[in-house]
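Suppose a classmate hands you a notebook page containing two proteins, each written out with its sequence and a corresponding row of structure tokens. How would you begin to make sense of it? This section walks through that situation. The first entry is reproduced here exactly as it would appear on such a page.
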Amino acid sequence: MRFREFGGYATSALIAGAILCSIATPNGEVSRHMSAGPRNADILVRMFPPEPTVMAEIKKGSAETLRIAILGTLGAVILSIPLGILASETMVARAVFRPVRTLLAFIRAIPLILVAMLMVGAVGLGPLPGIIAVAFHATGMLAKFYAEAIDGVSRAPIAALESAGAGPLVRLRHAIWPQMAPVVARDTIFRFELNLRESLILGIVGAGGIGFYIQTYVRSFQYDKAASVTVAVVVMVIAIEAINVAMRRRFT
């Protein structure tokens, strides 16, 4: 009991020390933040009113962003189905699911921006590297969710089919899938929403989407046009979130 109390105090002390070290900013940094106030105010003034003449670019960028999110999610689902089965201790032996889970953890550890930059270098500019990057990065999370959904089902129907001599695929189809389908639908919708949000910034590294126009306008000091694109991004995210909430309620 005393050891647990000491461990709790030590953990709290480490967290508090990390927070204090993060807050303790050098004086030069504080002065820079203070002097940036007028420049930030000038940028905000130049953003209003938003420039409405960029609607064509907004439509093109929004369509490209949706395409990246949709196709990236589709690719992740296709990859996650077999990987999720192989990462499930219910379906395969320990010698199989342990390495697969390690692989999925490795995929999740790679930042999406880094994957997008590598794909841009490999296949060039445009939405294709964004689609590949989103599909690759989302697979690490989605396959893990699918494996957890398989492992979280009731064991009774599985045991009944096993006693009847059913194989893994039969157990998956008739005992596991009916129980995990709502969870899979919920997790897939959640990941699509996350993919859409991440797709908004991929244009910064040349991987397509509406983020490309935000980068272009900010770098050319056209803050009123950047404001228009930002408003479109906010509207798109709110609309997609509302749709996803309605879909999650339907499937759960």
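The notebook's second entry, a different protein, reads as follows.
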Amino acid sequence: MATSGGEAVPGPKTMRLRYAGTCRACGTALAAGTTGVYDRSTKSVTCVKCPAPAPLETAASTPVVQLVPIDTVPKPLPPPPTDPEAGVAGSSARREFERRSAARETRIRDAHPRLGGLILAVSEQPQSTTAWARGAKGEEMLGRGLDSLADKGVRLLHDRRIPRTRANIDHIVVAPSGIYVIDAKRYAGRPTLRVEGGVIRPRTSRLVIGSRDGTKLVEGVHKQVGLVRDALAAAGHDDLPARGMLCFVDADWPLFGGSFQIDGVDVLWPRKAYERLTSPGTLAPTIVDEIHRRLAEAFPIA
């Protein structure tokens, strides 16, 4: 005898049917008075020739479902962090050069419909425009050299935008030896350190490239290093070292020596920079990767 809801329910019974019905097994019509098998639990009838219907499942035969607290169910592992895009060195400077060059061509052709092409052919781009192309070339040259250091544990970010400004950082390097902010310059002349004063007047240091005073370049690097240090502090790594570099590409460097430091900023050429970047350090590869991701988030591609 089966049970339902705690009450006993009689099983299938062979009897003379009081009402007409249809066999639930084969579908044969059964007239009233025909002998058949009546199942009260399902209120259905079956031919005496058909197999007996399966009995109603009892509480004892019902599988037990064990409830597991939600907090003990294993959670899926988060996806591994994606490797941030390094960016393309010199891309924003190259775009600015192309924008200025195209705007100049449009102005000249609009002002001189017939002679515009000739004027463009015989005239040169203004220095304010070519400076962008020269700067882009310097960043591209340095960027290729930096990319070659990737197999030595050096992580790179090229041409990164400073949030809420139109300015950018040429290169950010994260290596076991530390974090570096590199400003690439392609100036003619020899970079030198000029130290003046010290007895009567206050001692001052100036960066001179050929005959050109480039001390403001040092101030610019200091501002960029400060922004990177702020980003490191926001990420909980204010104890990590961050340094600035001014890397002069194609400058007139001497055969021996030549690199120097001014106000905490290293002034050097590309190969010397590569030596510094690949020097031994204390930052583990996992920390290098984490800092690389955090700085990529703080300074998007320009």
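A careful reader of the second entry would note: The mean pLDDT is 86.
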